[in-house]
């Protein structure tokens, strides 16, 4: 299995430890990752997709053409990148006129978009291609004894007939099974499938409500689960769910919300015995308890 | 509307005055015939149908006797209409029974002029003959009754009359009012337009009614109701158990006289005398077998209980059933007590109104929920 | 003559209520029916519904025949069905159809049950023994069942089966079965049959909530249930025996319940751009029942989009639900149902009244699931070798809902046409039977009436001599059987019992012969036969008895298994035998008192009278006349066609009523069997089914013609209706304010030119669905609005069209036109009665002010045309006709059918029928369907030349009767009347259903129901009580 | 308000090029699961669709709520009429950006300049610490970046606001 | 003497309650043998005579089973039955045969369970009440 790795911007710029984790785990799982040289912004929905169709699709097309050149599907971790690239590709595939126009624009690069490369989310590859069973075999450092909850990336659920690799978007199971494969107990709670609220302009336009929105979710987690950690699979979820806990704590003046948040690949890497200093180094929410637990269980 | 006219009469002239009135009605074509209690040539007073004014002389409506509840007679006269208008002098229980018969399509009020007389009760038929023998007169009886005394030596009005809470007849066109009229006076009350028209035709001038009549009627009714309640209470006390009923009916010989006398038992032939109850010998033996003994004639309680289910809603309490019993079983309270309960349950009152549907011919899906106690 | 012709035979595929109805109608008409169902039982979805809309009651049995009812089952329909002319094959699928019109060869696959019903004694020991427990699909998983089970709890016979999917083949059931009824290796069997015609009545599947992604929290909370599952919660045989509605998750009472509408319907995303028609009323009914069952503190809320109360009396039902029962309606389609930790279900919705978000918490959420028709249509299309229409549905002939296009002899009915309510299912079943009858009439086939074998002469005055015949087929042999020796000895002791005979097996030819011999020898005149499953074999047993010389009415067949075991808890041979003896003895007691009853045949005048010459009337007339029934068609105006036939050139679904009517008129006038009476009215009528006399008066153009008297056997009221009038919204004050119809006319004639038109406003429900006005939905106005709006957009796409509506009533597949209209840019704005549009006339032109419901702000439009949907009014002449025929009108002035669900095209008064808009406003295809149905009912009664009454009917003993007429008042079937001339009570034996109300009302048995006399009943009471002594001593 | 004077009749044609929004029957499904609908003012996609349909150009021009969308696509998942509400939001944003330069998101200038909105590949030291090689990003490849910029310059909004990209 | 076993004459409507009794039977729901079932076409067909007859001939209780209001095959026979039972109750109560001994119950065809419950309940109630006053007499005589 070989993919063009599309890292987007936040991962390499802010959380390269996640990138490190992905590279480490994929290697272990026998997935080869090729760097997508000269890739650009996916583009984020707040950018070209909000100005005009042509610049959006030109940018998408740019990225797609790079992968097509290498005849590989694109592997993404960031939910927004996944969604934007996917939609861009679909628009191009459905709108032949637009595809023609974008290929005109791409002409100077010598590349083009024909639809040869598909957009794959890392969760999908882990769940559908690798499978939780295979992952469980690779675990050397189990999460046994820990309770976790999962945050599904909205972009991998909706619209289900386009993206859906889950049997039912009402009852997604992928993330849950993947985390369970690591030995942890996954708790359910009522707002499990609610968006983290971190993407787009919600936080920017009405921060107060956006924080309250997130707070409801965390309150439900605290009340309804014994979560020691949160597993996500989208860089926005990761950053937002960490940040917003600190923001709320600041607002209420106590350290009430402090559940560490991990990208799934980080957890997986830890369970494969990778060094936390490499794959789980950057955070503003202490993760020591989890790191220690893993070390203890392994010992 | 109620209009009154007064008839003052000298002693012995009440019946003459009344004969005159009806004679005027006939003469002026207010009616074509008169049905009224009339003295019979030798003895007794019976309802008599008269079509010519000459034959009205023996009229005696206030005679304290009711050989038969006239509702049945009216039924015969009107169920297939004669086309003639008939004035009918009736007691309250007769009118009320008649109302039920109308609803049962056994009588027709279209051509009738109903004249209800204030009722002070009636003697049993045999007592009345004694009363007549002793030269008792209607006027004399009336006078006594108005003073609260109805008994003659050794006998009084029938038990049913003592507890009859309807001294005044409802649903009539004209009333012959004695209660609250004072001695020697009789008021005629035109209750309906039909009544007023008839009286007018007969040349009557209307004037003030008797003052205090309403109160007097009320008082009398209340007193009788009180008596009724006492009778009911003691009857219920006596018969809380089935054995008591059995005992009461022990002398019943299945003569069915009670039902023949009953004005609202309107069947041509009682079901108990039809094939339905013609049992085979084998059956009697079986019953005797299973019960140990079998009192015969059989089906006596069955008959009376069935009769209650048939007439409880219509019973007007005239007491003819008791009067008719050859074995002196006082059956009236059996029927009246049940009738009271049944009629109360269905918010129905026998004889109250021609327009009120009888309890077992209407029904509603949202009623009597307590019977099953079930909600969907 | 006709004996040599084969009897017409029809396959009805699907034994839901429409299939059953079609089957019964055909059977009553004299055709043989093969009734199959893929499921294990008959009754379809109705088997699950204890409470049926709109009366919230069950009344399924009211669809059984009224006349000749003895040829059919006379017991609860949920038990099962029996009819002499119907062969029922449950658990059978149609797998192949070959051949052509009138000559079809079908292959039927009888699915293996693994339990042989002929041998099974239904004791259910196998069920107890079975270790496998799985969700019971009958109760939607709310209860459990075993791998060997009874698929429907109340079916009789029970017909056990094994669900091979969950069966572990452990063999426990085989071990405990004493009759060797179980064969785990049983195979499906395919059998081939030949039929003349086929009616598809398979219904359709319902949307499976698990299959689709917008299924709310169905997948995650057991307290989110489908509407059918909720129905099982309400049921007496359902999940909660105490009748309380509980949360499946924890069994706590459900005090707050929400319904979410349109699950799986009105969903373009899932390729379901249709409405499922029945869910709105279904939800209302469920909400009302929840209130009634759970008490006033139960809160019920329905989240809906349009409350589609389009059927007869639906609107009133809705108002009652809201006003009397406090059912809350919120116009909002909610998305999220979130299960909170305590189990409550959180619903967030946007309240359209306040324009605010709310959270509400419910104990139970019911998802109103709609239809999923495509798979079924595809399957049938494959089998009958036809193409589906672009929408994926079977195509029907123009104007017909039941005739499959281009396929002679193939029809459909019921929910295969799109989900139908009970009334429509009935109409369609009858209509399909009617079309099939039409078709069969054109073939060289015959019909079979009642019994061919003559009744043996019986002298029922001779002393009763009773024979008892008991079949002890296989199942009695085992330890569970009866002690036949004891039975025989005890019965021989009973007086008048002259013969007791135990037969090895009545089912076998030898057994039959043995029984015949024994009976012939017995010299008895009354007979009791005990056998298993008498529901299935009664006919055969009675035939044997008749051959042996017994009068049918003096033969009684009883369920020996049932009577011996009914309610007994011990598995004790002696107890069973004693119970059987006791029951048989009381039957003997009744039998001894029973007179021989005879079927009377009443001659029938086979002429039909049809009142109303609109499309409905003409359709009924033609349909009857084509089958040889002479028809008088009476029309009060000077021409045929009615409102639709004379005024409506086209409809939205591409029909052309005027053109069709033109053709129909021609055919009517030319038909030898039809007498048309124009300018004519029925002034007076008298008689009963089979012999009416009606006085017809003419009032044409001042020329008074002499009245004539017509003799006819039945009457169809097809009086139709017309567009309603209004003085609201400035109608009459400006030229450009007009009704939908007027606008349509204007468009069609070209008088209206839209090229310069900027704005058009339509107001729906003018004077409709409103107290004190038209208190009903007229059903067609929304379609007219769609049609006109689309026309406007077609002629001038720049014209802005606003449709102000209360609820868009594009039910069923009509929804596509609503979608089309929106797609064309028509703007739909909802309003409610508290906030209705206002129209001001400014300089002779209307200005419409209304509230934009979504944005919640006032808007103003000055349209070039203001179009009002004024609904449909009933014909005013209905009132006189109702009086003349002594039938009832409902509060709205439409005729009142005998039963709003089960007898939609008949009146209570036998021999009178109704169809079309006389019933209620409805679209043309429905009118035609009803007209066909009414014709079929009429045909069934009239075409036999005579009517055979039931044996059990009431009578009057004239000599005892006092004519109090109480029996007339209490008769629910208007079978009794007072004959003024003869001064007696008359009975219409065809109308009499033998219920015995008259007999009870009559004090002295002047009225009596033969076969149910007091003597019989009282003997039985005696018998039931006397036997006890014996029982208590043991 | 008076529609005849205040509304642009065919605004929807400008805004929603797919025409899907015409399918909307105002059922509100799009609202109840939307994160941004919790905002103040809430993002009400249904109402936006209505404004587009009525042609309330001025109001729509002033609408900020489309920019609060979190792009989770749940509305799209739920809409029974396949109106594609998320696409509608993007279309409204595009329409606003096209017709009002102040709406143009500044992030696009960053993408134009360096390919990303974030400073990708400026943290080689940190990466090395984690055992990661430098990333071959476009900002390190002038030739490709130029081609990218030239391409963007041919697209309408960038071209119309070329001063921003100088 | 063995425990008193009340005799309950039960008139069950053919369409609903009789079917329910059948269902109870086939569902293996046993109910007391004290219930002596007499099938009638409709609860509205039960003449008051039958009830009286039953009591007079030794029944300790009478149970009439009909369709729920609205479900009656004959439209409203059950409503008529209800009025008659009300009447009979008024009459019989006077003689010691109270409403506990004459029951009318709506039991739909599918309500086999309810049939069993009613039968159990009535049997238990009558055991508690003891023999009908009419049977006491009979016992005395015998």
Written overview of the protein:
Chain A is an alpha/beta fold and 299 residues long. Chain A has two domains: 2-121, Glutathione S-transferase Yfyf (Class Pi), Chain A, domain 2 (Up-down Bundle); 133-298, Rossmann fold, CATH 3.40.50. Chain A has helices at 10-13, 16-28, 53-70, 79-94, 96-106, 122-130, 132-138, 160-163, 174-180, 202-205, 207-224, 235-252, 264-271, 276-279, 288-298; strands at 2-6, 32-35, 73-76, 119-121, 147-150, 185-186, 229-232, 261-263. In chain A, α12 (235-252) links the parallel β7 and β8. Chain A starts with a strand and ends with a helix. Chain B has 376 residues and is α/β, with parallel strands linked by helices. Chain B folds into two domains: 3-227, no CATH class; 240-371, no CATH class. Chain B has a seven-stranded mixed beta sheet, sandwiched between helices. Chain B is globular and about 70 Å long. Chain B starts with a strand and ends with a helix. In chain C, β17 (337-339) and β18 form a beta hairpin. In chain C, α8 crosses α21 (924-942) and α9 (484-492) runs parallel beside α13 (573-592). Chain C is globular and about 100 Å long. The model of chain C is unreliable at 1028-1034 (pLDDT under 50). With 142 residues, chain E is α/β, with parallel strands linked by helices. In chain E, β1, α1 and β2 (35-40) form a beta-alpha-beta unit. At the A-D interface, α1, α2, α3, α10 and α11 of A face α6, α7, α8, α9 and α10 of D.
Structural class of chain C: alpha/beta
As for the number of domains of chain C, it is 6
Count of helical segments of chain E? 5
Q: What is the count of β-strands of chain C?
A: 50
Any idea what the CATH architecture of chain E is? 3-Layer(aba) Sandwich
Provide the structure class of chain E.
alpha/beta
Report the sheet with the most strands of chain E, covering strand number, pairing sense and barrel closure: 4 strands, parallel
Tell me the strand order in the biggest sheet of chain E.
Answer: 2-1-3-4
Shape of chain C: globular
Architecture per CATH nomenclature, i.e. the level-2 architecture of the largest domain in chain C: 3-Layer(bba) Sandwich
What is the gist of this entry?
The complex is a heteropentamer of chains A (299), B (376), C (1034), D (166) and E (142). Chain C is of the alpha/beta class and 1034 residues long.
């Amino acid at each position: 299995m070989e993919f063009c790795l599309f890292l987007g911007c936040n991962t390499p710029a802010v959380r390269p430890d996640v990138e490190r984790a992905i590279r480490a785990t994929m290697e272990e799982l026998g997935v080869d990752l090729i760097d997508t040289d000269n890739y650009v912004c996916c583009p984020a929905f707040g950018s070209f997709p909000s100005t005009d169709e042509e610049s959006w699709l030109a940018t998408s097309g740019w990225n797609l053409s790079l992968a097509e050149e290498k005849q590989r599907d694109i592997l993404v971790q960031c939910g927004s990148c996944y969604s934007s690239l996917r939609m861009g590709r679909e628009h191009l595939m459905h709108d032949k006129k637009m595809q023609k126009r974008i290929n005109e624009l791409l002409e100077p690069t010598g590349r083009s978009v024909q639809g040869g490369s598909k957009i794959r989310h890392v969760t999908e590859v882990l769940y559908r291609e690798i499978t939780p069973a295979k992952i469980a075999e690779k675990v050397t450092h189990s999460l046994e004894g820990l309770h976790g909850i999962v945050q599904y990336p909205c972009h991998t659920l909706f619209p289900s007939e386009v993206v859906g690799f889950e049997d039912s978007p009402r009852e997604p199971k992928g993330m849950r099974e993947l985390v369970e494969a690591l030995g942890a107990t996954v708790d359910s709670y009522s707002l499990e499938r609610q968006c983290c609220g971190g993407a787009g302009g919600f936080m920017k336009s009405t921060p107060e409500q956006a924080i309250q929105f997130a707070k409801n979710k965390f309150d439900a987690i605290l009340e309804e689960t014994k979560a020691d950690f949160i597993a996500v699979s989208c860089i926005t979820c990761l950053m937002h769910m960490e940040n917003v806990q600190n923001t709320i704590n600041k607002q209420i003046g106590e350290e009430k919300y402090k559940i560490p948040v991990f990208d799934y690949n980080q957890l997986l890497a830890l369970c494969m015995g990778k060094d936390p200093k490499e794959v789980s180094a950057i955070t503003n929410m202490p993760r020591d308890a989890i790191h220690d637990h893993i070390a203890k269980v392994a010992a | 509307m109620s209009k009154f006219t007064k008839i003052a009469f000298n002693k012995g002239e009440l019946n003459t005055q009344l004969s005159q009135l009806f004679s005027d009605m006939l003469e002026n074509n207010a009616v074509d015939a008169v049905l009224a209690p009339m003295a019979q040539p030798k003895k007794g007073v019976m309802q008599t149908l008269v079509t010519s004014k000459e034959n009205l002389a023996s009229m005696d409506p206030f005679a304290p006797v009711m050989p038969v509840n006239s509702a049945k007679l009216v039924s015969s006269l009107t169920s297939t209409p004669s086309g003639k208008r008939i004035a009918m002098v009736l007691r309250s229980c007769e009118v009320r029974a008649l109302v039920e018969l109308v609803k049962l399509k056994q009588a027709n009020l279209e051509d009738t002029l109903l004249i209800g007389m204030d009722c002070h009760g009636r003697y049993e038929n045999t007592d009345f003959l004694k009363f007549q023998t002793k030269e008792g007169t209607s006027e004399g009886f009336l006078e006594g009754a108005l003073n609260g005394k109805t008994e003659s030596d050794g006998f009084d009005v029938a038990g049913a009359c003592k507890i009859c809470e309807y001294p005044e007849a409802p649903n009539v066109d004209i009333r012959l009012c004695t209660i609250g009229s004072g001695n020697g006076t009789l008021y005629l009350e035109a209750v309906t337009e039909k009544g007023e028209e008839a009286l007018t035709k007969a040349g009557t001038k209307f004037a003030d009614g008797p003052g205090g009549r309403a109160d007097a009627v009320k008082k009398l009714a209340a007193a009788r109701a009180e008596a009724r309640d006492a009778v009911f209470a003691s009857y219920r006390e006596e018969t809380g158990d089935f054995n008591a009923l059995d005992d009461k009916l022990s002398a019943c010989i299945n003569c069915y006289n009670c039902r023949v006398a009953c004005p609202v038992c309107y069947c041509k032939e009682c079901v108990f005398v039809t094939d339905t109850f013609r049992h085979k010998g084998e059956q009697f033996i079986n019953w005797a077998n299973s019960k140990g003994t079998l009192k015969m004639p059989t089906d006596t309680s069955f008959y009376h209980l069935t009769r209650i289910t048939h007439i409880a809603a219509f019973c007007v309490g005239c007491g003819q059933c008791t009067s008719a019993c050859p074995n002196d079983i006082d059956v009236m309270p059996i029927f009246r007590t049940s009738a009271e309960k049944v009629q109360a349950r269905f918010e129905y009152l026998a004889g109250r109104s021609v327009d009120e549907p009888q309890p077992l011919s209407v029904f509603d899906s949202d009623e009597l929920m307590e019977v099953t106690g079930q909600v969907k | 003559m006709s004996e040599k012709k084969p009897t017409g035979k029809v396959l009805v595929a699907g034994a839901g209520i429409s299939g059953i109805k079609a089957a019964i109608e055909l059977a009553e008409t004299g055709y043989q029916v093969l009734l199959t169902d893929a499921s294990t039982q008959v009754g379809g979805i109705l088997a699950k519904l204890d409470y049926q809309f709109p009366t919230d009651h069950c009344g399924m049995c009211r669809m059984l025949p009224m006349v000749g009812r003895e040829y059919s089952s006379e017991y609860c329909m949920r038990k099962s069905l029996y009819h002499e002319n119907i062969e029922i094959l449950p658990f059978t699928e149609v797998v192949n159809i070959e051949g052509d019109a009138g000559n079809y060869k079908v292959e039927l696959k009888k699915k293996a049950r693994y339990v042989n019903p002929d041998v099974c004694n239904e004791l259910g020991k196998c069920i107890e023994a079975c270790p496998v427990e799985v969700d019971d699909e009958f109760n939607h998983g709310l209860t459990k069942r075993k791998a060997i089970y009874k698929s429907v709890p109340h079916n009789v016979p029970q017909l056990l089966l094994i669900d091979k999917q969950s069966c572990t083949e452990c063999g426990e059931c085989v071990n405990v079965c004493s009759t060797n009824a179980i064969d785990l290796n049983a195979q499906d069997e395919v059998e081939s049959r030949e039929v003349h015609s086929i009616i598809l009545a398979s219904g359709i599947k319902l949307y499976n909530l698990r299959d689709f992604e917008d299924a709310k929290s169905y997948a995650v909370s057991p307290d989110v249930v489908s509407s059918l599952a909720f129905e099982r919660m309400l049921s007496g045989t359902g999940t909660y025996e105490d009748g309380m509605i509980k949360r499946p998750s924890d069994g706590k009472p459900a005090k707050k319940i929400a319904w979410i509408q349109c699950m799986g319907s009105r969903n373009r995303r899932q390729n379901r751009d249709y409405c499922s028609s029945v869910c709105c009323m279904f939800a209302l009914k469920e909400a009302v029942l929840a209130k009634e069952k759970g008490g006033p503190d139960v809160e019920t809320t329905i989240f809906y989009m349009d409350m589609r109360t389009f059927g007869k009396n639906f609107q009133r039902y809705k108002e009652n639900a809201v006003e009397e029962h406090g059912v809350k309606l919120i116009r909002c389609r909610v998305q999220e149902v979130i299960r909170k930790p305590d189990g409550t279900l959180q619903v967030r919705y946007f309240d359209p009244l306040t324009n605010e978000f709310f959270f509400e918490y419910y104990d139970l959420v019911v998802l109103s699931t709609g239809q999923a028709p495509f798979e079924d249509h595809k399957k049938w299309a494959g089998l009958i070798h036809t193409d589906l229409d672009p929408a994926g549905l079977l195509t029907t002939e123009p104007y017909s809902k039941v005739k499959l296009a281009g396929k002679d002899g193939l029809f459909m009915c019921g929910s295969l046409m799109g989900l139908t309510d009970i009334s429509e299912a009935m109409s369609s079943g009858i209509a399909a039977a009617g079309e099939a009858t039409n078709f069969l009439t054109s073939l060289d086939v015959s019909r079979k009436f009642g019994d061919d074998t003559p009744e043996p002469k019986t002298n029922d005055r001779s002393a009763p001599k009773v024979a008892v015949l008991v079949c002890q087929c296989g199942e009695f042999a085992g330890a569970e059987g009866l002690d036949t020796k004891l039975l025989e000895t005890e019965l021989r002791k009973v007086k008048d019992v002259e013969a007791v005979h135990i037969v090895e097996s009545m089912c076998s030819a030898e057994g039959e012969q043995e029984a015949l011999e024994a009976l012939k020898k017995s010299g008895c005149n009354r007979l009791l036969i005990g056998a298993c499953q008498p529901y299935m074999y009664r006919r055969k047993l009675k035939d044997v008895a008749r051959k042996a010389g017994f009068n049918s009415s003096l033969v009684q067949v009883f369920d020996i298994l049932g009577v011996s075991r009914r309610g007994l808890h011990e598995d004790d041979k002696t107890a069973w035998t004693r119970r059987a003896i006791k029951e048989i003895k009381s039957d003997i007691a009744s039998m001894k008192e029973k007179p021989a009853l005879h079927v009377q045949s009443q001659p029938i005048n086979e002429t039909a009278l049809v009142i109303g010459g609109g499309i409905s009337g003409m359709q009924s007339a033609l349909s009857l006349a084509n089958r040889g029934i002479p028809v008088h068609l009476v029309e009060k105006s000077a021409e045929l066609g009615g409102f639709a036939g004379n005024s409506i050139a086209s409809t939205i679904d591409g029909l052309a009523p005027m053109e069709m009517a033109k053709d129909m008129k021609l055919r009517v006038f030319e038909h030898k069997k039809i007498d048309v009476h124009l300018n004519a009215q029925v002034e007076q009528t008298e008689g009963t089914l089979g012999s009416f006399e009606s006085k017809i008066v003419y009032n044409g153009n001042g020329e008074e013609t002499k009245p004539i008297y017509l003799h006819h056997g039945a009457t169809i009221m097809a009086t139709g209706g017309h567009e309603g009038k209004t003085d609201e919204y400035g109608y009459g004050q400006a030229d450009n304010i007009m009704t939908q119809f007027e606008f349509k006319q204007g468009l069609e004639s070209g008088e209206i030119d839209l090229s310069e038109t900027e704005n058009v406003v339509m107001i729906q429900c003018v004077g409709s669905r409103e107290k004190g006005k038209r208190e009903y939905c007229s059903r067609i106005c929304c379609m007219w609005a769609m049609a006109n709006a689309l026309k406007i957009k077609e002629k001038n796409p720049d014209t802005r069209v606003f449709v102000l509506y209360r609820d868009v009533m594009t039910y069923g597949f009509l929804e596509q036109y609503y979608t089309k209209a929106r797609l064309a840019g028509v703007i739909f704005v909802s309003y409610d009665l508290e906030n209705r549009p206002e129209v001001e006339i400014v300089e002779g032109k209307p200005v419409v002010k209304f509230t934009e419901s979504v944005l919640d702000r006032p808007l103003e439009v000055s349209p070039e045309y203001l179009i009002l949907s004024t609904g449909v009014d009933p014909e005013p002449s209905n009132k006189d006709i109702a009086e003349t025929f002594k039938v009832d009108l409902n509060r709205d002035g439409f005729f009142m059918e005998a039963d709003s669900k089960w007898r939609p095209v008949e009146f209570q008064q036998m021999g009178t029928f109704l169809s079309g808009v006389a019933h209620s406003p409805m679209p043309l295809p429905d009118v035609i369907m009803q007209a066909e149905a009414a014709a079929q009912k009429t045909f069934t009664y009239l075409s036999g030349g005579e009517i055979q009454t039931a044996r059990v009917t009431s009578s009057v003993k004239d000599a005892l009767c006092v004519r109090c007429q109480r029996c007339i008042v209490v008769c629910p079937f208007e079978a009794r009347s007072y004959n003024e001339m003869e001064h007696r009570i008359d009975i219409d034996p065809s109308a009499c259903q033998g219920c015995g109300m008259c007999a009870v009302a009559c004090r002295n048995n002047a009225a009596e129901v033969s076969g149910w006399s007091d003597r019989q009943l009282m003997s039985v009471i005696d018998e039931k009580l006397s036997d006890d002594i014996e029982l208590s001593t043991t | 308000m008076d529609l005849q004077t205040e509304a642009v009749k065919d605004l929807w044609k400008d805004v929603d090029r797919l025409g899907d929004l015409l399918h909307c029957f105002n059922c509100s499904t799009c609202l109840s699961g939307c994160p941004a609908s919790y905002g103040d003012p809430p993002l009400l996609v249904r109402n936006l669709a209505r404004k587009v349909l009525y042609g309330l150009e001025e109001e729509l021009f002033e609408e900020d709520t489309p920019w609060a969308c979190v792009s989770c696509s749940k509305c799209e998942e739920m809409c029974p009429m396949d109106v594609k509400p998320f696409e509608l939001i993007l279309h409204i944003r595009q329409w606003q950006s096209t017709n009002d330069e102040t709406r143009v998101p500044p992030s696009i200038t960053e993408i134009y300049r360096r390919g990303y909105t974030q400073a990708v590949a400026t943290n080689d030291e940190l990466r090395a610490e984690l055992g990661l090689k430098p990333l071959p990003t476009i900002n390190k490849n002038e030739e490709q970046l130029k081609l990218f910029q030239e391409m963007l310059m041919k697209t309408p909004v960038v071209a119309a606001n070329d001063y921003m990209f100088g | 003497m063995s425990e008193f076993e009340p005799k309950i004459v039960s008139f069950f409507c053919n369409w609903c309650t009789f079917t329910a009794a059948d269902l109870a039977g086939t569902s293996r729901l046993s109910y007391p043998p004290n219930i002596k079932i007499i099938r009638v076409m409709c609860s509205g067909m039960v003449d008051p005579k039958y009830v009286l007859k039953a009591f007079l001939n030794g029944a300790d209780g009478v149970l009439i089973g009909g369709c729920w209001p609205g479900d009656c095959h004959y439209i409203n026979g059950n409503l008529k039955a209800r009025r008659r039972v009300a009447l009979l109750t008024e009459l019989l109560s006077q003689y010691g045969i109270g409403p506990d001994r004459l029951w009318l119950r709506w039991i739909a065809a599918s309500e086999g369970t309810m049939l069993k419950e009613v039968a159990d309940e009535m049997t238990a109630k009558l055991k508690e009440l003891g023999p009908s006053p009419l049977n006491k007499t009979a016992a005395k005589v015998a």
